[in-house]
Amino acid sequence: xxxxxxxxxxxxxxxxxxxxxxxxxxxxxxxxxxxxxxxxxxxxxxxxxxxxxxxxxxxxxxxxxxxxxxxxxxxxxxxxxxxxxxxxxxxxxxxxxxxxxxxxxxxxxxxxxxxxxxxxxxxxxxxxxxxxxxxxxxxxxxxxxxxxxxxxxxxxxxxxxxxxxxxxxxxxxxxxxxxxxxxxxxxxxxxxxxxxxxxxxxxxxxxxxxxxxxxxxxxxxxxxxxxxxxxxxxxxxxxxxxxxxxxxxxxxxxxxxxxxxxxx
Length: 264
Fold this sequence. Notes:
This protein is mostly helical. Helix content is 84%, strand content 0%. It has helices at residues 2-12, 14-37, 45-54, 56-90, 92-107, 110-121, 126-148, 153-161, 166-202, 211-220, 224-252, 257-263.
């Protein structure tokens, strides 16, 4: 109990939070100094804050659109990556057939694909969901494949000795072993899903709502305060998504050695 309280006290100690506060203050002062001398490069922080305060419903509405596109696209990418990872883990033939296609898809710039998807599927949510799914697919796939293959050989031999079926090995051994790798991927792709949604919205500015559309339209009109207010919303959303993944990981992986060592 004393260790737990010791950790809690250390987080309230100036040694824990003071470096972050100092770094933020210095960054803010540097921003203001640049903005005062270069008003066409950066807006004043007060102008950005005023935008967020006076136009709160506007930014919340567009943030909700971008967030929904990001999460739905991420869900599509996650499910697709899980299915492909299981298939290539269980079948060498499928691995040799699918993995080259996955690599080609990964190295193809999604920014170049987005306009073609808008032409093919129109200005609705479909191209935005596809772009987000494509961006998040490969990191999840590679981490899941690594995790599914990371089982301990002695434990796998025990399962084989007990004549466990492939489904039992997958559900009782491979999937639990892959969870740390999955959460490592989710730490990356949850914020990355916002990038996918914004990139897709850039391809169809003015055709709908979303923070990407807000940034594109505002930048074309040189409204820097609006641009950076939308960017601030995206940064806050990405930080909250990352925090959600971290808390979920601690909850789900309480049994894993990484969490046990952290608590120790």
